[in-house]
Design goal:
Helix content is 59%, strand content 0%. The protein has 83 residues and is mainly alpha-helical.
């Protein structure tokens, strides 16, 4: 992941899934395990930041019934009566 060509959110998640598979297989050295773990942590932070930015954008774009922009909670979890 370079600053010049950042991964999309979807690419980041796909790479995270690949790393999880590699780590779960257990057929890699301790050195590689640590390398993949560090990469996974960085990707997790990167993807979390992208989600936070998307949440801010959604909040900005929500309007009330009079057409004024209002800040509303961004709800995503069904079990919390959110969506």
């Amino acid at each position: 992941m370079s600053d010049k060509n950042p991964l999309s959110f979807e690419e980041g998640i796909k790479r995270l899934e690949e790393l999880v598979e590699l780590l779960q297989e257990g057929d890699i050295s301790l050195e590689d395990s640590l390398k993949y773990y560090k990469e996974g942590i960085k990707l997790s932070i990167y993807c979390s930041k992208q989600l936070e930015e998307a949440e801010r954008e959604v909040i900005k774009l929500q309007k009330d019934f009079e057409g004024k922009y209002v800040e509303k909670a961004f709800k995503i979890w069904e079990n919390d009566n959110e969506i």
